[in-house]
Amino acid sequence: MSASKLAEFGTRHVAKGIGRLATEVIESGSGSYVTMASGRKMLDFTCGIGVANLGHCHPAVTKAAQKQVGTMVHAQVNIAFQKPYLELIQSLLPVMPHKSLDTFFFWNSGSEAVEAAVKLARHATKKPNIIVMQGSYHGRTFGTMAMTRSKTIYGENYSPLMPGVFSVPFPYCAQCSIAKHSNGKFNYDNCCMDPVDQLELLLKRETAPSDTAAIFIEPLLGEGGYVPPPAGYFQRIREICDKNNILLVADEVQSGFGRTGKMFAIEHFGVRPDILVMAKGIANGFPLSGIVSRKELMDTQKPGSMGGTYAGNAVSCAAGIAVAQAFKDEKILDNVNTRGKEMKDMLQKAKSDFPKMIYDVRGLGLMLACEFVGGKSFASKVQAKCMEKDMLILTTSIYDTLRFIPPLNITKEDMAKGLGIIREAIEEVAAGEDPQETKTKGQAPE
């Protein structure tokens, strides 16, 4: 079947509820590139939405999975221990952001891992309610739909959803109404900390601490716009949790496994989470997720209350072990910080050159975003130009934002190529606008 016929077949027979960037058919991937069935080769700055962190078909990960397929594919977790599961724990223990995180449960998807964290938090505290951040994304299962607050489409017309979920603002300083009206007094470098005040009010008005099991936070807001919190924020949240016997849950599904320049984004803020949620980059594309917490919390659950048919699949765990080893052998974090600086410098230069087009540049490591002035659909226009130039990138957020998720082991040459394409795309979109609209003093997005 031809590439066009395959795409047509997919349009007819694949569920319409799955949104996608392009109607082309991906045939193969290698390193920082994917090749379409049409033969078109594209530089991939999406990594399967932050999953193939070591690039497509990383040789060591592929070899480990191939070997495991010939040994044991499905060793059901409720039947007995299986070796790759235990060896993966051995690989991950040394890189946990705090020594108290020593007991693991592996599942399949990020959403399932978030739900596992909800189960643990409610069971361990014997309290029903949880608090999430406005702008957060935690998944699209019935439980996590109730927790996701980045866009209404994820939960629209699916109610009633899981009860007991409350939300507070995340410190998104670029969109903070207080910062915008403070004449420069408050900003990312000097946050007003109103979101902390709003959390304290929530605990007085809507969900009492005695009813609140946990606060779920993405250490770097993902679908909501790749927004890092300001200095001091997490320390305040940790204090509130400790004071009120509330668990702090770090959702590192997207920000974990080196994406921000540290193994886990929470490490940038020096705070201990009670539960850490992981997925995506853990096995470089093989379905695997998990939670980790301290043993006394995990041991509150009765045997049989957790599990799943494919939970902690042996092949996925073998891939995860290879991923952990590759981080050491290839000095992945060093590359993330070097390439991340190159990308951020280019985006900052573009913001300086087009201040009425680009409103904000932010992020950590290779989890970066460029927010455009609202009302012009600049992000989608730049994205389309990049695709014309054989490069895949994604938009995100309810604001006009592009996110950049290149492979963590991307070469200097491929990064330079990608940055050149992005810069050209921005220039071409700007050229199609009134110069006074893109090169004069900036304004806030709508």
Automatic annotation (TrEMBL):
Keyword Iron-sulfur attributed: no
Keywords linked to the UniProt accession: Pyridoxal phosphate
Cofactor: pyridoxal 5'-phosphate
Family assignment from sequence similarity: Belongs to the class-III pyridoxal-phosphate-dependent aminotransferase family.
Name of the molecule in the record: 4-aminobutyrate transaminase
Lineage per the UniProt record: Eukaryota, Fungi, Dikarya, Ascomycota, Pezizomycotina
